Each structure stands twice: as C-alpha cells, then as structure tokens.
C-alpha cells in the first residue's frame, strides 16, 4: 500500500515524476536570468480585462491536441535529460529491435534527443492513427507506471520503443476505435506485427496488467502538464470569449447542473429506501 501511494500513476496525491524532474532546469533557468539580468522581453501573454475575457480551448475533459502533445513530449524530454541511470530491457532497445531498416549508429545510446525530435515522432503517430489528446495524457501515465514498476529509465537507446508501447496500449484502452497493431506497421513501415505483439505483451506484463487510470490521476496529470507548460513558456492559444462561445459554455454548464441534480435526487431516493432512517434537513443559505 505504501508503494502504491508513492506511485503517481496510481495515486492522485503522489507528485508526477516528470514535473519534479523538470524543476531543476526551471530553477536554473530562473537563476541564470536573474544573475544575468535577462529581461523577459515583450509580453506575449494575453490577460483578461473588463471588456475582454481570454480563454483557451483546452479543458480537462477536452484537451487541445497540439498543446497536449507538446507538453507530453516535453515531459518525456525531461525524463530522458534528467534520468537517474540507463537501466533498460532488451525488448525496448532500438539496436536489438530497430524500428527502421536504417543502421543504428554505434553511439546511439550517447545522444539525448531534443524536444523537437520527440515531438515529431509522437505527432506523426498521433496524426496517422488519428488519436486523441486524452490518449496522449494516458500515454504519459502508462510511461511513468512502466518506469516505476519495471525500475528502468527512459534513455536514448529505448525512448522510441517505450513511447510507442505506451501509445499502443493507451490507444487500445482509451479510444473507442482502437488502432490495431498492424495499423502501426503501416505507419512505421519497417516494423513487424510480431515485434509489435511481443512488445505489447512485455509492456502489459511489466505493468502487472494494471491498465486502470482513475479520473483523479488523469486530472492530476492534465493540470501538471499545464504547470509544465507555464514553467517552460509553452502558451496555450488564447482567444477572446465570443458571444457564441459564451452561450455554448452556458449550455454545457446547464447540462452538467441538471445531470448532478438528477444524481442528487437518485442518491436521496436510495437514502429513503432504508426504512426512512435518513432524514434530509435543508437550511437557507446566508449571504453576507
């Protein structure tokens, strides 16, 4: 139970690994800017005023796809950059199981990929397979769960196959229309179905077949990714709140309010069924 509570991919109160790994770089960057008197430059962030409200189109239930992929790949970048060691397994090693027919350089394990490289790899998979932003967040949950359960590190020699395995599993668990392993072979032309199947089997075994992602854990990862974006000046696209958008938000709010009212009524009916032992007492709210 203690191990479970310290694992961020299982417990909502445990801190995400990627956010803690990014903090060293964030602090160093702020310290360097302060010492060198670096100006933040022209302010590009938009702020709401009395006449205009700026909002982005990303919410915890409907995240923005492009922004989410940028944040998830940045989290992977910090995992690789600030890893503790180079612990790995053969099933994820790109030299042993190459994704392309191109020869893997002998020093492939020495060079950390930059954020753009990771982003292009993940974006290509998500675009070709038409995966959702929610799937990207679950991918990161599975990735951190794998690193914790299997006690390995994500490093230059294994990052592509670990990320691919996490995406493969997340797309099957999360998305209604799952992408088959053979479909990924159409995207990554040189990989075989047998290799994909073997990697998926190992990934599941290393996760101890724990593919459950509680809503509270999902929400924690979403908001920690937004914090990561703020720390690294990755801004979400802000647009003025239009009349049409405000009406749409209001309609969604009403639907949610009606839904929770119905749930509350159902809960009250269940309480009265126990021989009317539970009474409901209502009091007027006092606004000061």
From TrEMBL:
PANTHER family: CYCLIN Y, ISOFORM A. One of its GO terms (molecular function) is protein kinase binding. InterPro entries: Cyclin-like_dom (IPR013763), Cyclin-like_sf (IPR036915), Cyclin_N (IPR006671), Cyclin_Y (IPR012399). Belongs to the cyclin family. Cyclin Y subfamily. It comes from Upupa epops. The gene is Ccnyl1b. Keywords: Cyclin. This is CCY1B protein. Residues 120-205 form the Cyclin-like domain.
């Amino acid at each position: 139970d203690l191990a479970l509570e310290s694992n961020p991919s299982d417990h909502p109160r445990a801190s995400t690994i990627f956010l803690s790994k990014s903090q060293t770089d964030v602090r160093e960057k702020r310290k360097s800017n302060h010492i060198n008197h670096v100006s933040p430059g022209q302010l590009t962030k938009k702020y709401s005023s009395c006449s205009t409200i700026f909002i982005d189109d990303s919410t915890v239930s409907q995240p923005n796809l492009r922004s989410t992929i940028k944040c998830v790949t940045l989290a992977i970048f910090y995992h690789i950059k600030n890893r503790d060691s180079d612990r790995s397994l053969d099933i994820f090693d790109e030299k042993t199981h190459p994704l392309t027919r191109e020869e893997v350089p002998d020093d492939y394990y020495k060079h950390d990929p930059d954020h753009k490289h990771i982003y292009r790899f993940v974006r290509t998979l998500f675009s070709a397979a038409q995966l959702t932003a929610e799937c990207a967040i679950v991918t990161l949950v599975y990735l951190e769960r794998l690193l914790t359960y299997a006690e390995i590190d994500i490093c230059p020699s294994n990052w592509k196959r670990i990320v691919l395995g996490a995406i493969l599993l997340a797309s099957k668990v999360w998305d209604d229309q799952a992408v088959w392993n053979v479909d990924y072979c159409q995207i990554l032309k040189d990989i075989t179905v047998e290799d994909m199947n073997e990697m998926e089997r190992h990934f599941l075994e290393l996760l101890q077949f724990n593919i459950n992602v509680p809503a509270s854990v999902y929400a924690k990862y979403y908001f920690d990714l937004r914090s990561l974006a703020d720390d690294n000046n990755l801004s979400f696209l802000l647009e003025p709140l239009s009349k049409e958008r405000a009406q749409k938000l209001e309609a969604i709010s009403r639907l949610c309010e009606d839904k929770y009212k119905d749930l509350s009524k159902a809960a009250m009916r269940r309480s009265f069924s126990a021989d009317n032992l539970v009474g409901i007492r209502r009091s007027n709210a006092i606004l000061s």
